[in-house]
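Running this now, will post back.
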Amino acid sequence: MRADVHFLDDSESRMKAYFFGKKNKPHRFCPECSSSILIDFANSDIVKQREHLAMNVSFILHRGKNVRTADIRSQASLFKNIDLENAKLDKFNGMAELDPPYEV
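Update: finished.
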């Protein structure tokens, strides 16, 4: 939830953004190392999403189960005091499930 995330110093203003689709949810990243940091839903068309920030993480399928990969821990390392054991993780494929369709 947005209320649970506090940016240190000027870190929020230093992030850069890339937009997909309707261009209302910036994918924020570090301009120095290009690490994907979060997706900001503040301007989402869906009101109930607006209180959320999301981390981009990958899942792999192992023996029929979704397994958290090292990518989650790597992504989470960009945040201080994050509790991955109790974090709510929602699996969602925005590229496949949101309009307009992503095109290269």
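Strands lie at 16-18, 27-29, 36-40, 53-54, 59-62, 65-68. More later if anyone needs it.
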